[in-house]
Amino acid sequence: MKLTNKHGIPQTFVNVLERPTYSKGKAHLSVTQLINSPKIVALTKKFDDELEQDVSEMVWSLFGSAIHQVLEHGQDQNHIVEERLHATLDGWNISGAIDLQITSDLGLSVRDYKTCSIWSVLNDKIEWEQQLNIYAWLVETVKKTPVVDLGIVAIIRDWSRRDAAKNDDYPKAPVKEIPIRLWPYEERENYIKHRIAQHSAFEFALEAGETLPECTTQEMWEKPTTWALKKTGGVRAKSVHETESEARGALLKAGVGYEIEVRPGSRTRCENFCPVSNYCQQWRDYQESK
Prior knowledge:
The protein has helices at 11-17, 31-35, 38-46, 59-72, 118-122, 126-143, 161-166, 185-208, 244-254, 268-273, 281-289, and strands at 2-4, 29-30, 52-54, 79-89, 92-104, 107-116, 147-156, 175-180, 222-223, 226-231, 237-241, 258-263, 266-267. The chain has 290 residues and is α/β, with parallel strands linked by helices. The protein folds into 2 domains: 2-208, Lambda Exonuclease, Chain A, CATH 3.90.320.10; 222-289, no CATH class. Strands 2, 4, 5, 6, 7 and 8 form a 6-stranded mixed sheet that branches.
C-alpha cells in the first residue's frame, strides 16, 4: 500500500503512518479481516503493491491508536492489556489483539476500545458483536477460561454537551460502555467456520482466475431506491415507500398538493470507503447500470 499526502499534512503524521506497529503475526486472518468482506480482503492482498491511501483518510485511525496507548497506562492489577491470541480452526490460524481483559473469580470480561462517531453509538453495529464474540472464542479456546461478559468502550469524538442535555437517549458523557451479547460457544465457533469457508472460496477463485463471488448488500452498505410522498415543494416526506406502486397508491389517497420524489439507492461503502473498488467488476457493473 502506497501512502500519499495530497493535502500537505505535517510530515510527522506521515512518518508515524509509515512506521506501523500493528502485526497479525503468522495468522492467515486477523479477527477484523475475518469479519470483513472476503472480496475486499482478497483483492487487497492481490493488489496491495498498487493500492494508494491518503494520510488525510487515516488521521482518525491514528488518533484511535494513540488513545489505546494512553489507556494502557490505566492498567489495574486485574487487567490484561493488548494481548494477542492465536488459534487454529479448519486449518486457518486466526489471531486477535484484545484491548482489555478483566479478571475475576468468575472468569474474564472482554472489552474493546472504539474511537468512533456518535452515529456508531446510537445505531446497532453488528460488526462489534461479531468481533467481540470471536475474541471470546479465542480466550476460551486458548486460555480455557470462561468469558463472563463483553463490552465496547466507546470514545465519542463528536460528542455534544448540548445534545446530551436535551436528548434522553444521547450519551451523558463522551465515553460510554456498551454491553455486547455473548453468544454460546458453539454459535461462536460455527460463525467462525462459516467466515473461514467464505474467505477460502474467495481465495480459491482468485488463484484459479475465476469470477469472484459478489459482495452482499450488507457488505456494500447498500441503501435501496425508495419513493417518498411529500407535499409539493416540501422537504420532509409524509411517507416513504419501497416500491413505486406503493407510493402511487399513497399519492392517490393523499390527493392534490402532494408529489412523489424518487430517492435513488446507493452503495455507500463501494463509493466512498472501499479500498479496492477500482479493481472490482461488481462495482463497475453497478456503475454502468446506473
